[in-house]
Structure formats: C-alpha cells, structure tokens
Design goal:
alpha+beta; three-stranded antiparallel β-sheet; 6 strands
Length: 172
C-alpha cells in the first residue's frame, strides 16, 4: 500500500494569549502510512508546531512551512495525543515527510531532531508534552544537525534513520 495524505489542512488561528502560534483544525486531516495505519488529526485538534523543538527552527525550518508542513500537523497531533510510542510517532513523521517530497537528508535530520530532543514517552504511559523534552540550545542544535549530516554522509545516500543513527556519536 502506498502512503498518502487524506484531506486538506484547514485551520483557524487562535488568539488565546499564548505565543500566538496555535491553530485549530476545522476539518479532519490524516496520513496513511505504507502499512495502512491511519494517523488522524481530527477536527478541533490544536496544533502549534511544538513537536519540533524551537531550537531547531533556525536550522531545519519552522513548522507550517515547506514540504513537511502536512507531516508536522499530523506529528503535532500524534505527539499531543500520544497515539503510539514516541519512537513510532517520530518514525511516522519521517515517512510522512518522505511522502510529502522532503529529501531523505532533510527528513533524516528532522527525524533525529525530534527523536532526540522532541517529546518522548512510552506507549500507554501518559507523559506531559512539555516536560518530556530534552533541552537544547540553538547553538547546540546547530552542532547536532552537523553531526547528523556527517552521520548521514557516512551511512550513504538514502540511508534509513536507523542506519544514520549507527554513525551518530553516542553523546548526541
């Protein structure tokens, strides 16, 4: 089965005295992965791009921009609702980015960023979205991205996230 997105992203901006980046989905939207699993972002879901750590925005790009914006919407909702383990949710993000035309190096880099510094939880063990992150500064985010790109180069063109991880230094 080929992976695909279902529907169009339709949102309204929320003005709720937060950092003013929250949006509410006004229609259902979903990603169906290559195994036929549907990752649904239901009408009424709130998205903010928070599943991609802010420190990486200047390096790999902010959410809602570029070819990965549809993947970031589904990733945001899957993280907020903890639809599966964080490992599976972040891997879904990787494959959704590829489905959306993101090149493998950018998809790998973004995957490694969310896997290592994004929300983390175990399946079936509810965890606070905000407290589950490993902190990182913008300077360290730049250095991390460079390490990922070196590892990806060593792993070879088209390498999977798991293959790239084998070349990442253990302290990453």
């Amino acid at each position: 089965m080929s992976a695909r997105f279902l529907g169009q992203i339709k949102t309204i901006w929320l003005q709720d005295h937060s950092d003013d980046r929250n949006r509410e989905l006004v229609e259902d939207f979903a990603y169906v992965d290559g195994d036929g699993n549907e990752w649904k972002a239901s009408q009424g879901s709130i998205i903010s791009g928070a599943s991609i750590p802010d420190a990486f925005w200047s390096v790999i790009g902010p959410p809602f921009v570029g070819n990965y914006r549809r993947a970031s919407v589904v990733h945001d909702v899957a993280c907020e609702q903890q639809m599966s383990s964080s490992e599976k949710v972040h891997l879904m993000f990787y494959y959704a980015m590829l489905t959306d035309g993101v090149n493998w190096l950018q998809a790998n880099t973004m995957y490694q960023a969310v896997k290592n510094f994004g929300p983390a939880w175990d399946e079936g063990v509810p965890t606070s979205f905000e407290t589950s992150r490993r902190p990182i500064s913008e300077v360290d985010a730049h250095a991390f991205v460079q390490r990922v790109r070196v590892a990806a180069d060593q792993a070879g063109d088209g390498a999977s996230p798991q293959e790239v991880e084998r070349y990442l230094p253990q302290d990453s």
